[in-house]
Each structure stands twice: as C-alpha cells, then as structure tokens.
Amino acid sequence: MRKCKPYDGKGKGNKSLGKLKLPDVTLAAMTSVKIYETIKALEYSMQGIEFGEVVLITHRRPLTLPKGITYKHTSKLTDIDCFNYKMVYELGDYIDTDYVLLIHYDGFVVHPEKWQEEFLRYDYIGSPWPVPREGKRHCFHDINGNLCRVGNSVSLRSKRLLDFPREANLTWEKDEDGVYNEDVFLCCMNKHKIEEAGMKIAPVEVAKYFGHEHPVPETLNVDAPFVFHKWWGRNEQYPKFENPWNKRWAALKGLIRPLLFWRH
Q1: What's the pTM?
Q2: Which of 40, 181, 256, 263 stands 20 to 30 A from 157 (CA)?
Q3: Rg (the chain; Cα; Å)
Q4: Sign of CA dihedral 171, 138, 80, 91
Q5: CATH number of this structure's domain 15-260
Q6: How far is CA 21 from each of CA 16, 47, 69, 84, rounded to the nearest angstrom?
Q7: Rounded distance, CA 46 to CA 28, Å?
Q8: 99 and 83 Cβ atoms separated by less than 8 Å
Q9: Which parts of the chain are beta strand (E)?
C-alpha cells in the first residue's frame, strides 16, 4: 500500500522553488470545532503548493496561527445544520480568488503531485459517491431521477458557484432523507439549475483522480488521490491529527477522578 509522503516537487503544474503554484485557488476551512486539528490539516495541505490565499474561517481568532494562514471571522457554527447553511450561502463572502479548495480536519491534500489542471475546468469537483444498493432509499439523484455520482464537501469550487445560491435565490431545503446536506443540495437537488446557468460538476471519470472518500470501484485503479475525506478503506494510511492537550487533559482527569470520589 502506498504511503503518504511530503511533496517532492516532481508533480505537474506551474512550479516555483519546487512548489506547485495555484494563484487562483484559495485553500480554506470553516469550522468552530477541532481548531487545532483543522490548522494542522491546512498546514499539511500547504506542503508543496503555493495557494493564492490560505484562510481559516472561524468564530474566534486562535491564540497562535501559523505563518501564511489568515484568520477570517464568522459567527459560531453551532451545529452541523449551521455549517451546511454557511457552506451554501456564506462561504463565497470569504473567497477573493476564482476558486476555493475546501478542506476539513478529516479531509485535506495528501498528494499534491496528483494535481491536474483539468480540475479547473469544473465549477465543483469532489470525491465520487457510491452507487446505492438496489432498493435502498437514497438522495443521490437529481430532479429527473438521474444518479449523481460526484459531491463531497472536501472539494474544489468556483467562485461563480459559491455566489450562485444567493444570486439565484435558491430555497434552503432538506434532502429526501430529511436532513440538510450542502453537497447534496448543490450537486443533486439543484444540479439542473447550476447546469442551466452554464456551470459544470465534474464527472466521476475525473473526480476519481481528485479525491477519495468511499471505497468505490472507479478508484481501484487510481494509486493515490489529490485529496481524501474520512479514514475509510485505503484512506486509513493518511495523517490523523490530534490536539496534544486533549490527551494531557484526559490523563489529568484520570488522576483527579479517584480523589473526587474518595471516602474515609
């Protein structure tokens, strides 16, 4: 199994001092949880790539922020529904380049040498979705019943797509499973409107080289993706960052707890 290594400067694309240059792409993460882990994911994604900008969008400025990462303020993301809404209607307010590469603490760039200029031909590209089992209810289809195979929140999106939901007055709705999912909302429920506006969502034949989340047949012949999301299947080899203070605090609680319940 191929192991994840730091970028060696041998990939395709515009390079400066061994780095891939993506001046039209902002690397971004929006969160109010796992801030330490998210910052580490941003740093890891910056290895071997020079982005137009790198931003952490959160509700409170971290005490320390590595060089090259810019803090941008948003109101606190109180739950997953809040996150999904902001992804659709507010993310564009923080992006000044033509594209955004959106990552999370559990999904980020792991093979910068796998970047393809073709990715920029699309307004949305993420990891392939699996084909649902026959008879299983699912929400991975458009309004015409066609199966949608590409979505995922760890994704590359055009600024045009980011601004589209507000400009087109798209109504915020739950999917068929009764939950809010920003990628399903865009790549399935409103795919027809996005395409009618002249934008393109990448096909699975291209998306399989961009990112891996679910183990799907199309990715079996791809040795490594540009990004990953979730530590499923072959993705278990990729880094999993953990705030060291969480371990220290857990150890301290383990020492204190017996004292709290000690009796003569």
Answers
A1: 0.88
A2: 40
A3: 20
A4: negative
A5: 3.90.550
A6: 7, 11, 16, 30
A7: 11
A8: no
A9: 15-16, 19-30, 49-58, 70-73, 99-102, 124-128, 150-158, 211-212, 227-228
Query: Residue 198's pLDDT is what?
Result: 98
Cα 3 off chain centre by: 21
Q: Average pLDDT, whole number, for the chain? A: 90
What are the Cα distances from residue 7, in Å, to 19, 166, 202, 225? 9, 38, 25, 13
Band of pLDDT at residue 249, cut at 50, 70 and 90 = low
Question: Would you say the C-alpha torsion 27, 67, 33, 248 has a positive or negative sign?
Answer: positive
In sequence order, the β-bridge partners of residue 21 are 50
Chain segment 222-240, per-residue pLDDT in tens: 999 999 999 999 999 999 9
Say how many CA atoms lie within 13 Å of 131 toward its Cβ. 6
Q: Closest Cα partner for 107 from 176, 175, 183?
A: 183
Q: If you write DSSP's letter for every residue of 44-61 in order, what string do you get?
A: HHTTTEEEEEEEEEESS-
Amino acid letter, 231: W
**How far apart are alpha carbons 255 and 60 in whole angstroms?**
31
Looking at the DSSP bridge assignments, the partners of residue 104 are: 107
* Tokens read off for 183: 């990628």
The values of phi and psi at residue 120, to 5°, are -75, 0
Domain ranges of the chain: 15-260
Average pLDDT (19-39) is: 97
